[in-house]
């Protein structure tokens, strides 16, 4: 997947494990580390609602892939 810049964009889905007190804070921290340490910038972050996620934690269309 590429954007207008021509650079590759990767899709990553994360789910907090039980016991994570503040998932948003954990995600923000992860994104800061990704940018500062590895030069990976988040260009899109969306929260998936539980109703749109299957038992394995993937959205319904994620298993079928693009197309």
Please, could you describe this protein's structure?
The protein has one helix at 23-38. With 67 residues, it is mainly alpha-helical. It has a domain at 23-49. The model has no long low-confidence stretch (mean pLDDT 83).
Task: Provide the structure class.
Answer: mainly alpha
Which strand-content bin applies to the residues? Answer: under 5%
Succession of helices and strands:
H
Question: What radius of gyration results from the CA coordinates?
Answer: 14 Å
Query: For the report, how would you describe the main beta sheet?
Result: none
Tell me the quaternary state: single chain
Mean pLDDT score: 83
In DSSP terms, counting alpha (H) and pi (I) runs of 4 or more, how many helices?
1
Q: What percent of residues adopt helix (DSSP H or I)? A: 10-25%
Weakly predicted, low-confidence segments = none
End-to-end span in angstroms?
A: 12 Å
Number of distinct beta strands: 0
- What is the approximate shape? flat
Give a brief rundown of this model:
By secondary structure, this protein is mainly alpha-helical. It is 24% helix and 0% strand. The protein is flat, with a radius of gyration of 14 Å.
List descriptors:
single chain, 67 residues, 24% helix, flat, mainly alpha
Task: Outline the fold blueprint.
Elements lengths: L22 H16 L29
């Amino acid at each position: 997947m590429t954007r207008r810049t021509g650079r590759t964009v990767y899709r990553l889905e994360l789910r907090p494990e039980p016991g994570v007190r503040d998932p948003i804070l954990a995600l923000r921290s992860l994104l800061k580390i990704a940018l500062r340490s590895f030069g990976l910038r988040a260009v899109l972050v969306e929260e998936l609602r539980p109703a749109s996620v299957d038992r394995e934690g993937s959205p319904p269309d994620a298993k079928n892939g693009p197309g």
